[in-house]
Fold each of these.
Amino acid sequence: MSKFTLTMIASVLLAIVAACTRPAAPQPADEVLKNGKVYTANPNQPWAQAVAIRGGKIVAVADDAAMTAWIGSKTKVVDLNGGMLMPGLIDSHVHPLAGGRQMTLADIGGGHVTLPQFKAFVDEAIASGKALHEGRVVIVGVHPSMWSENLGAIFNKPPYTARPTLFAGSDAHTAWANQPMLQVLGISRESLAAMPAEKRKDYSVDSAGEPTGFAVEAGASNLFRGLPGRDGRYERAWGETAVRYLNSHGVTALLEANAGHPSSDGEAILKLYQDLAQSGDLTLRVSALLEAQSSQELPEIYRLRDKYSGLPNFSVVGVKLFADGIVDYPAQTAAVLTPYIGTGGTGALKIEPAEMARIVTDAERHDMLVHIHAIGDRAVRVALDSIEAARKQNPSGTIHHSLAHLHLIAPPDVPRFKQLGAVASFQLLWATLDETEQQLIKPYLTPEVWEEQYAARSLADAGAIIAGGSDWPVSSGNPWEAIAQAMTRAGPFGVLNEHERMSLPRMLDAYTIGAATAARLQDKVGSIVVGKEADLILLDRNVAALTPEQIAQTQVQWTMLGGRIVYRCDACSNPKAPPQDSSKDSSQASSEEVAQ
């Protein structure tokens, strides 16, 4: 065989090898979104210009030029016209059905009002019929300062005694009922006397032992039976309303903070989610929690988890625990390390430390996360101790358990979040120096404890996973308001612990990849990365170039779930672009630059 022939054979073989190893041209995308400012929440590629989608998933994230290879004859190409695209927002602590219900009730909004103003609101709500439900008067969103007023002097007299009346606190931990409502609910001096002292303490009584109508925690929950739906009849419309509302603010996934307690709520909430999921009306991803008060209840929760598995956009992922209550006076049910000034109380733990550790350990053994309501610094410490106990039993565990609210955190506990892989779910719309802080909290905390409030930056600086949440309907479900508030922490009486202000990149990550981790969805959503679901939102402004005040007004032009538009703002179709800094293209700025 000649040398020439051998050379030809070698050339052919090399060509075959090259053809086999050369990357194949990508299969065309279903849709390409280009010419945008794409915030990815991916630290390895914080910004891009374009995203390609196929089969509801992200297949490419790059600049416009690179997207040419993904465009075929049937590819839909969308020009974003320089608009800001980002991952769908995720709420790490929200009560959607309660929020949908509250949108149908007479809601005073949680703001501080005088007693005459409150009475006028009640009268108007009765006259319009909005407060009336099956012959009862129901007012929600009542500011806790109202409990210091003598409500009985007004609402236990005609004409109000003609109807059972319930006022639900905006904090969801307090309530007041007039005498007719107490009678309907079976709450009397005799029924209270028959209760164990531990339960009886949640009701306010007069010198004769008669209930005054005010109650906290479990007592308030008993009064909440007067709310529509507390008898297990959850209306589908509440779910539909909640989904539309959250989609409109760019929320595409959430951690449902309490889908019911098996013994009290049964499966009513789960069945409603099942109905929404099967009908295709659940246009966001719901990771649900079921409440437990003891380890004995866990087997039933595991059973329900399995029963409601396999539903589109819905799954039961964990257990909800209440470690304590709230800091606000007069309740002061949050468990604290330092006694409240003036009252000398320290709140109370709702679950004993050893039992909480058993619950977390057992839940992790059954592949479920635990999400713990922890307000006071003692509750936070005990919650972290319970996670640490689970880690000792399972050192290789990868479940990110989470603590919600975190009003007070003792400095020694700050580094423990990263050490334990615990997620800090903050509701930073509350980080403001308003009437509640000024009147119902500040007078009762020492200066040292005062500095512990909502220590988001301290935790972030210590490497903790921060997740954004709303606790809607306790407060607004609009993430943009919370993001802006976290950046300023300003209120009518000044700034609440200025050193705990958060940067914009940290807050964007808190509502994307951070909250995805809290909801156990981080491998599926939370960042714009190849292989993840195409849960995306287009904003009416480039928030990276704006002030917090402008960020709070952000509107979502459209919301996409799995590559499908599930919400579109018709009023935002031709938004007027807000002023931007022309000296720098902020879409190409690093996250540290944006932080400044």
Amino acid sequence: MKTDIQIARETPLRKIKGIAEEWGIPREEVQNYGKYIAKLPLHLIDEARIKQHHLILVTAITPTKAGIGKTTVSIGLALGLNRLGKKAIVALREPSLGPCFGMKGGAAGGGYAQVLPMEQINLHFTGDFHAITSAHNMITALLDNYLYQHRADAVGLKEIKWKRVLDVNDRSLRRIVTGLGGSVNGIPTETGFDITPASEIMAILCLASDLDDLKRRIGNILLGYTYEDKPFTVNDLGVTGAITVLLKDALLPNLVQTTEQTPAFVHGGPFANIAHGCNSVLATRMALTYGEYVITEAGFGADLGAEKFFDIKCRKAGLRPELTVIVATAQSLKLHGGVDEKLIKEPNPAGIRRGLANLDKHVENLKRFGQSVIVTFNRYAQDTDEEIALVADHCRDLGVGFAVNTVFAEGGQGGEALARLAVDTIEKNPSQPLSFCYADNDPVRVKIEKVSKTIYGASSIVYTSLADKKIRQIESLGISHYPICIAKTQYSFSSDPKAYGVAKDFELKVQDVIINNGAEMIVVVMGEIMRMPGLPKNPQALQMDIVNGQVEGLS
């Protein structure tokens, strides 16, 4: 089969204004970024039309290191729905340069289920990530300047909570010292970098309801504490308006197209293991304005992305999916069935049977949220009919809808069975009103306990002294009502990435708690998770080049 980039190059693209007009988007409102990419103004969002349309969430069982194809399936489901005569739009996150040049090589779908133009989407796209990086680091520079200019005054800060970000996987920047070389270079400070998808600015952009809300949230960002133990925010720094200026264009949703020339919104990109893992609320609402069906995905397994989609995004934005689709693969089931990672591409029905416990736990969790659930088997060339039949029979016994998809190899045609199942389930058995994992007024520790014990299956939670201190600060600030965003490994229900299957009777350790006062959520760091990833031994960058004017190495 051809590579992703070969398929992308051979797929004819339509001018984006033509696609927009065909779907009812006024041509004069389309803000072009070249021929095939555009941004749309926020006043086009229509709440009345949103209420008439259907939202579908795509999530997955616990993935392998190679992923599980969730983005590809999301795109393929939209393509399948359109082939059935439904108006379907997909709403996705933007790829990060870190994983693109690290392990993934791209994140725009795959095979014949991609969003295009994939080279631009995977690289600099419309500059949203750069705007977020610049806005975040502008705050840091202005804060450092404030401290430097007031170093002889009594208006300094006792404690700094704001670091820097960069959209590159660079482990050397996790902990650094700035301001060395004498007083003219600033005040020596121990600090560090997170990756841009972990920036609070990224979360704010993805959760903001409009420009005014964006500005309000930016102003509320907690930067540190004064010597009187009072919170010091961007509003106190006096630069809220300046930072909003840097983000005014990045706030607008990006419109692109699929391999079958249907519209797709790609906007925002927080990771689900260290952030909340969902595309922007504004892009989802824009898609729901113009699409009868909207398919969106939440990062990694359902224990991370889906939980945060419900408990953070839906809770705050008033969204409610009518269906959740769980993606499973033979490789992931075998891995969670105890098969050695080097052997998961080989047939192993017994490994599949054992791995079904991981699927069961995710189904159980999603039903707790009131969701109607169906399972799709993302088929690879080496998968056997016997293995697929095992999963199909198991889903039938569970009373859960099941469909095989071959969207990677066949595009929309390979997603028709899944699309029919999705429509039929929504019409006959749509999701119930959302039942969140915790209440807004639950104490922070109770929220952590409910997610840890109910969703992950932990038996106990312990806290470092640092985490204890942060929770007391949260309580003193009166923001315990914020939802929590747990940062932990994506490879297990526990904080141990090697605890495959369904971990039981394990302890979770809360290492740190980070107050995202602008994003209005509390990030709870568990285990050894890093907010600045490192590069693998053989990064994808080794395969990248430009040959005869064309990019090679993206996949």
Amino acid sequence: MNATAGIQTAWKKMGFNCGLEIHHQIMTEKKLFCHCPAGKYSDTWHAEVMRHMRPTLSELGEYDGTALMEFKTRKEIIYRLNRESVCTYEMDDTPPFLINQKAIDIALTIALAFKCKIVGELHILRKQYLDGSIPTGFQRTAIVGVDGEFPLSNGKIVNVIQLGLEEDSCREISDNGHRIVFMADRLSMPLIEVVTENTLETPEEAQEAAMQISRMLRATQMVRRGSGAGREDVNVSIKGTTRVEIKGVPAIARIAALTDYEAHRQQALLGLREEMLKRGFKAGDRPGRVIELSLDEIRPNHPDLAAAKQVRDSVRAIVFPNAKDLIIWPLHGRTFADDLSGQIRVVACLDQLPNLLHTDGPNGGLDEYDLRIIESETNLKNDEVAVIVWGSEEDTNTAANELLDRFAQAIVAVPNETRQALKNNRNDFERVLPGPDRMYPDTDSPPSEITDERVKAASKNVPIAPWVREKIYREQQLPDDVVDLLPITRYAPLHDKLVDNNTITPMRSGEVLARMMTALERREYAVDQLSIEQLEDLLNALGAGHIHREGLFDLLKAWTSTPSLTFVEMLERLEWTEIQEYQITTIIQEAIEIANGEAPRLPENLFRMAMGHAMDVLRGRVDSRIVLDKMKQLIG
């Protein structure tokens, strides 16, 4: 068995399962349900609005668990509004406009790219969010297509459950204590959501699947680029657990490491559960007691406890029976105490870390003196562990209840929850995982019919899949970096056309359209200002030998600043006119004279210096190999 097969077998034994929810903003001028411009970001605001969120009953008369959790946080939510990118719709003071039809057409094209079956009628639903990121308390969303697919490099077919069209949320600016601040410029920008089945069996498969989706989206040329335009949610479970969502993964390249960590964290939590059951804990138990610590006559050594006593904050001890070594149970590089800390950081808003101390082992943050204080005030028994929290009366009360609930959950199973990715590829609690009660129809938005004619029109914009082009480009013996870049650019159809017509070699076309254009884009030259027709003229001339590779990069740089010029006009501006052989010889002779006048210290430097002077004049007009040969003849 080779190493790869062994790794796959290990993940299969663990029962690793993963699914993806890939969100990406699409390229429209307007937002999804109003006429405000999309993609207009600014840190300037002209007004602030404050809101408090409250949960509402679903159509079945039930509350969503996530909404109830968010309500416990008692957040004061501030929205900063820029009048150029926000209207009364975003603040829920006006009903939605009719849905952006351009956004529907783009979503149809993307759904067809993934071979989805298209719905006959688009229905808008409301998806409840009480984290403050959407002022209405819900996101408007719609299913465009279902039952799609795409391949992985190992031949596996990944099923796409659905492709949706929905509005984006606000940008978070800060979140401190009970106050969270958002910028509303991103709010209601159209985005698509690609949801896969939970059939990805290794972290590497999960990462590759996300990359395949991302490459297809980019190949359509209908999605936005840049920071924040795309976000990935990753659902992970192993044998014996249910879904845990890692929310807002900031980079596809981190998915393998993040899912690896989460799978091992869940495995460790199953071990914790097994240990708790061995100790006699039972499902349904809520063991533990809460004790208010007075600390009236004693000054603790720990600075946070001393500060809490000074400002008369509440200090509570949550005492868990038979819990020695459970609070410090290792969770693949973190501990159960870290999970507890994350829960009260979010729900009780105790976000100044450390936000808890404990008596389980030497790393709980308490010295011998403080330990004796805690043991005395809680009457702690040998097998008991105390967890200490401090803050306002309400916050410590919320924290105590959350700790009791989380300890009780550990007896039963790995909880369904949404977790946020950390910089070290670990994760922390974000919120309870939403349930089906969060979705209900939007009575403010009429359905949109999806006609056969509309689907047919959208199908004309579906690109050749990147993985199909990659195979073709490898057969053309293009370098790996070109194979990787070219299929997801707007230049791929031009490359295919020119190569099919034998106008230019695949290598030369790929070098220009993939390497040069990407390098210019990364240096922030406006390459998108150059039309495909302009680039076709350039590559035709390059293939015919009328211009040459040397100097082409400089030509393109100059052309991006004057894109109104035709190719011929650009050559005239650069003085890349046709040149006779006798002129080439004269220019090379002059270059040699200049180099001699510079008195090179070493004879071999004369050739290099003369070549540089000659190419300054001849670059792009004459093949450098011709200049090189003639230079050798003249210098001798």
Amino acid sequence: MLSAVTDDESPRRIRRGLRWVFWRHLPFGGLVGALILFSISLTPSLLPRPWYLQGVVSGVTALVGFGIGSAISALIRFFGVREPSPQFKRWAWRLLLPASLLIGGVFLYLGAQWDKVVRDLMGSPQQTVLEWGYMVIAALVFGYLFLVISRLFRALGLGIGLLLDLVMPRRIAMISGAGLAVFLFVGFLSGFVFDNMVYLVNGFFSVVNEGTSEGINEPTSTLRSGGPASLISWDSLGVKGRDFTGTGGGPTMTDIIVFNALLRSRPIEDAFTREPATEPIRVYVGLESAGSVEEQVALAVAELDRTEAWDRSVIMIATTTGTGWINEKVAASLEYMHNGDTAIVGLQYSYLPSWISFVLDRKKAASAGRTLVNGVHEWWSQLPEDHRPLLLVYGESLGSYGTERAFDDVKDLLNKVDGALLVGPTFVNPIHNDITENRDEGSPEWRAVYLNGQEVRVAVVPDDLSQPTSPWLSPGIVYLSNSSDPITYSNPALVYSPPDWLGDPRGPDVTPDMMWLPLITFWQMAGDLAFSTGVPAGHGHKYGANVVDGWAALSAPERWTDADTQRLRDVIGHDE
């Protein structure tokens, strides 16, 4: 049945409706909701945040509170529930400003105290009072910006609803208008906006991929991809590949000889004659070096043959992050530890940084890890059994996910390789999740003990690698997983369920003040993701020299001592 509204009245109603959306005063319920959620946004999370990031988190959280409060008010009016008296409303409005200043001030003070505790736990510098002032301004700016965007969206729904009001009952029209607005908005984001954003971002980082970092030059060693006689051109390696194989990246034979002299407290001349080092092999295949992942792996295996990597004592397969990054501390520490008698192989599978690759195309990480591990393992297994190098795998962050996806489970991993170092696992890592879910009773999630620690060790600090005291078998798996790493613990289940890692005991750098709140905790940790490496080593998603202890637990050569590990930590972590 058609509405009684005439065609002449319809445009006026639409104009009035749009003015109502853009010019009406902020509703009481929305402001109360904004105040409540702004205050909650200041409660502590895993990591300290700089003022501008806290401003974004608090501003958006306050807007969510504004939306919830406004929705409750609208529902009250929509269903005709009796509203408070005009006198009550006047007093409520008069008290709102002083109450906001009081409550907001109290929570800003508490937020500063909570933030201080977190920063003390991590050795991060404290924020000043001025920076907290900047945070409030940033929260207001971002809150208002997103309010404008949300009202544009609401205007769309209202406009559609008013048009539908011409042909259907008002309430059904308004609900239908809101539903269609959501449909159009999501379609616009996932279609036009999302697809074009992916295209633009991919194009931008493909240009970045053509650069070369300062201090990196084309290698002169035949034992590095991109160098003389290499099957892989220097230009095709990508910026992270050039960082990895170029001159200026990683220790040379001379560097290792000097380290040996310092390590053994002998003169350098004596080290040259008594402990000759070997030039490490570094094999890398860029995204532009071949047409497919399979062709990249075939090229990598051919490079291993060309460099005679089968004659080394250790081969390490590195599953990279999105852009093709391999942590130089991980690679160098293995090379120093084994006197350069090593070969490391990796490949690039994306132009995108790790966090974008994780969201958009982590299937590429899984495919690259599986194809590379299987290809190198097949080549390695064809070598004589008594002449096979130690075969190790490594992955960090998204790279750890790619490494895990090369194996069916823990048993399969241990059957195929001689050791695995997995650093900063993500919350979707299947093997890591299996280990934590099936950990021994009494061990915390953040330092899971699996089958009495015989083959798998999860370490927050290096001393964890010696726990439990049961024999440490080989092959083994070492996870370096900081208890404050949001990459590991930002599981979407936080929206509705409290995590085990917030129970007792807590990790050594997790504040006792942190509490789980539905939705809020997940949102706060989403903010932590943006600052996950902006903390000192050993916290967040930054692992520093702890990788040395990981390799020492898995593959330390004969005569290697704890004192050697500490000296190597000093070399690897000199810039921390």
